[in-house]
């Protein structure tokens, strides 16, 4: 009878161990998993992909003597899209260090500009119409290291 109990215990251990090994998915990725990971990241044929390029979009509303955003934060190297929506008066947007700016916009008009934030630091953007800048129509673009 002892031999029967030992045999049953051995069989149970083998079955439980086999089930555990068969169902264990938390181990290192298999060769097939690694291939799928690479395949999932492959670009569409003909598509140009820059894995480091990131695009950021902001909408900035302009009204008399203020912008809706006092601060815009991005990472170095990001492409920045800023849409200026003028809600009242006559305004523009200037960011000298990046050569970025809109034309003069009348109330109800909008324009989108694009530039690459390739310099690290804090940069003032402003409205160049009349004395709007002196009256506080400014903000800060902060470009942080990647």
Question: Can you describe this structure?
Answer:
The protein has 146 residues and is α/β, with parallel strands linked by helices. The chain has 2 domains: 2-40; 55-144, Immunoglobulin-like (Sandwich), CATH 2.60.40.420. The protein is 22% helix and 33% strand. The protein contains 2 helices and 9 strands, in the order H-H-E-E-E-E-E-E-E-E-E. It starts with a helix and ends with a strand. The relative contact order is 0.16.
Overall pLDDT score? 82
Distance between the termini: 71 Å
Report the CATH architecture of the largest domain: Sandwich
CATH C-level label of the largest domain:
Mainly Beta
Radius of gyration equals 30 Å
**Topology as a string of helices (H) and strands (E):** HHEEEEEEEEE
CATH topology of the largest domain: Immunoglobulin-like
Would you identify the regions where 5 or more consecutive residues have pLDDT less than 50? 26-49
Assigned CATH superfamily of the largest domain: Cupredoxins -  blue copper proteins
Number of strands: 9
Q: Report on the biggest sheet.
A: 4 strands, mixed
Put simply, the count of helices is: 2
SS content category: alpha/beta
Strand order of the largest sheet: 2-1-4-7
Strand content: 25-35%
Query: Portion of residues in helices?
Result: 10-25%
Keywords summarizing the entry:
2 helices, alpha/beta, Immunoglobulin-like, rod-shaped, three-stranded mixed beta sheet, 146 residues, 9 strands, 22% helix
Task: Provide the fold topology.
Layout: H1 2-23, H2 31-40, E1 55-63, E2 66-67, E3 71-75, E4 79-86, E5 94-95, E6 100-101, E7 110-116, E8 121-126, E9 138-144
Parallel strand pairs: 1-4, 3-9
Antiparallel strand pairs: 1-2, 4-7, 5-6, 8-9
């Amino acid at each position: 009878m002892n031999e029967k109990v030992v045999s049953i215990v051995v069989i149970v251990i083998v079955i439980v161990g086999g089930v555990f090994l068969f169902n264990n998915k938390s181990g290192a990725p298999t060769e097939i998993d690694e291939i799928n990971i690479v395949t999932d990241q492959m670009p569409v044929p003909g598509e140009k992909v820059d894995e480091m390029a990131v695009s950021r979009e902001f909408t900035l509303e302009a009204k008399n003597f203020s912008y809706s955003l006092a601060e815009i934060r991005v990472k170095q190297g990001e492409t920045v899209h800023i849409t200026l929506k003028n809600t009242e008066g006559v305004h523009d947007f200037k960011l000298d260090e990046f050569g970025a700016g809109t034309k003069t916009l009348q109330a109800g008009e909008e324009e989108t500009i694009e530039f690459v934030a390739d310099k690290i630091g804090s940069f003032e953007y402003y409205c160049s119409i009349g004395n709007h800048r002196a009256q506080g129509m400014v903000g800060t673009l902060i470009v942080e290291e990647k």
